[in-house]
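#struct-help
A.M.: can someone run this one for me? Single chain, 288 residues.
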Amino acid sequence: MALYVRIDDSLIAVPRRGRPPRLADAELLTLAVAQALLNVRSEARWLRFVDRVLPGMFPYLPRQSGYNKRLRSALSLIKRFIRELAADTEFWTDTVWIADSTPVECARSRPTVKRSNLAGWAGYGYCASHSRFFWGLRLYLVCTPHGLPILWALADPKLDEREVLTAMLDRDADLIGQRRGILIIADKGFASREFEADLATRGIDLLRPARKREKPRPGQALLKPVRQLIESVNDTLKGQLDLEQHGGRTFEGVATRIAQRILALTAAIWHNNITGQPTTRSLLAYDH
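D.P.: on it. Structure tokens below:
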């Protein structure tokens, strides 16, 4: 209810043009977040569940196809409220950021890959932490030590990690310009003199492990516990929010479902923060 009121109040400030939909945007996003938190992968089953368990709370519920179309058309709105909810927490101004990427598998069999509508977007990549190849996309996530998403992007796994992070920083140059003394903590994959020089021009320092035959870098002793935080965030997205069980068959479908899960994580952190919960990234209060 708190999430619905927060979104609805924000949308009232900017009136919608045209005929209002039967399912309001605030209702749509609330449904999307609840679906992700309750781990209901099937949209048809989710709508039946809502109709049975919460009768009357949503005056109108579309069918599965209508719900799916509304969600995909609301991708920009989902992105907007990921940012708005994040900015509404006390962690938003944190200048220590952790950057990492994680696989988002989209197909396994060769016939599925050949006929997938994701061709041209997805590709083959390698996940070192699980020692496996995959076909799909990579989710790049920049978050605070509390797990609050700051920046995120989906990219072909063949792309260089440094190029993707550079593009993310370029896209949100205004956000970067508002901060002073940003420290990005990343792994060895982001090692590069040119990349670090580019970060320096933006006023950003990079903390990463030293490569082989490289002298120990300042602050390296702090890396292990901090790096575990981003692994924990990825584990929350994959283990509790079913990141890789998204079911998307097009780039728009995958992007919407990934954004839906990031919005759910952000909403949980936002609500835990404003209600004074001791563990801000805990989803236990919302997953049943």
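A.M.: thanks! The radius of gyration is 20 Å.
D.P.: also worth noting: DSSP finds eleven helices and six strands in the chain.
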